[in-house]
């Protein structure tokens, strides 16, 4: 799933290539992906892109007075092309959900795709990004100016959930998902099952620093990369996530996993849980 660093890199990539360029055609292939109907998708045609903003994991492409907003879900992606096919795309079982063709240079534009059978990609055409329910509910951006140590401590105060679930809650922190929450907790040397409200002042400070460092370094690694290179960069930058059975790069212990119905978390026992393996059992509340 694309998370804050990858979405931020996509934002920069698209903004550089779209600024001032007008939409020739916006061709919807997956009807289910479009979550709005007024304004219609066709209203962006003829409009020039004026900028691209990121809201958590959402991208908002401004076209004239409208915004084309996308949330890539678990398996969505943006693919830039200097030579889009001349023939209009056909609805089918392929990954293509939306094709946006620019007026010039001829043939340029981008596809929005989604792999797999589970469809979570969401597209919106709105007059204000805050009209998108997911954006309106977002919590603080961990790379924003308002994300201070005091603000972070306030978010955790009285929070009785496990810290892994809190970090992933988009209503608390916008943009962190399963992968980077694993990485943040590893950097903070903290168990994913620890209750947020039970953290000491020192642990809160350590976790705050780990959030900024982990995300900041990932953003810098991804900056300037083409979309097709971002997924590989994300994988190679991980220290524990997706590395079950491999040695921890910090202490050498074996990275372990806890599995759930549709995902898993990874951690290092030595670095995070005092050497004690966590019970591999389903904790549905962790994923909410």
Could you explain how this protein is built, in words?
It catalyses: Hydrolysis of DNA containing ring-opened 7-methylguanine residues, releasing 2,6-diamino-4-hydroxy-5-(N-methyl)formamidopyrimidine. This is Fpg/Nei family DNA glycosylase. InterPro entries: FPG_cat, FPG_N, H2TH_FPG, Ribosomal_uS13-like_H2TH, Znf_DNA_glyclase/AP_lyase, Znf_FPG/IleRS. Belongs to the FPG family. This protein is of the alpha+beta class. It has two domains: 4-136, MutM-like, N-terminal (N-terminal domain of MutM-like DNA repair proteins); 149-287, Orthogonal Bundle (Helicase, Ruva Protein, domain 3), CATH 1.10.8.50. Helix content is 27%, strand content 20%. The strands form three sheets. It has a four-stranded antiparallel β-sheet with strand order 1-6-7-5, with no helix packed on it. A four-stranded antiparallel β-sheet has the order 2-3-4-8, covered by helices on one side. Helix 1 (4-18) runs parallel beside helix 6 and helix 3 (149-156) packs across helix 6. The longest helix is centred in the C-terminal third of the chain and has 22 residues, at 201-222. The radius of gyration is 20 Å and the shape is elongated.
């Amino acid at each position: 799933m694309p998370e804050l660093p990858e979405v931020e890199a996509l934002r920069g990539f698209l903004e550089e290539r779209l600024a001032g360029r007008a939409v020739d055609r916006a061709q919807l292939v997956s009807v289910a992906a479009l979550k709005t109907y007024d304004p219609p998708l066709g209203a962006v045609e003829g409009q020039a892109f004026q900028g691209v903003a990121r809201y958590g994991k959402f991208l908002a492409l401004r076209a004239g007075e409208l915004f084309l907003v996308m949330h890539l879900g678990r398996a969505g992606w943006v693919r830039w092309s200097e030579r889009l096919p001349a023939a209009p795309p056909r609805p089918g079982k392929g990954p293509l959900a939306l094709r946006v063709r620019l007026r010039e240079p001829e043939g340029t534009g981008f596809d929005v795709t989604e792999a797999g059978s589970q469809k979570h990609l969401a597209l919106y055409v709105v007059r204000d990004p805050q009209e998108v329910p997911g954006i309106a509910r977002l919590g603080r951006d961990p790379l924003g100016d308002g994300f201070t140590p005091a603000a972070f401590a306030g978010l955790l105060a009285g929070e009785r959930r496990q810290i892994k679930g809190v970090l992933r809650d988009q209503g608390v922190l916008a943009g962190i998902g399963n992968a980077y929450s694993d990485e943040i907790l590893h950097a903070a040397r903290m168990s994913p099952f620890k209750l947020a409200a039970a953290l000491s002042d020192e642990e809160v400070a350590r976790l705050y620093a780990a959030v900024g460092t982990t995300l900041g370094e990932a953003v810098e690694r991804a900056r300037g990369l083409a979309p097709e290179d971002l997924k590989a960069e994300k994988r190679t930058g991980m220290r524990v996530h997706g590395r079950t059975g491999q040695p921890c790069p910090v202490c050498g212990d074996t990275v372990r996993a806890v599995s759930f119905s549709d995902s898993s978390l990874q951690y290092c026992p030595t670095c995070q849980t005092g050497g004690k393996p966590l019970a591999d059992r389903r904790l549905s509340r962790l994923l909410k």
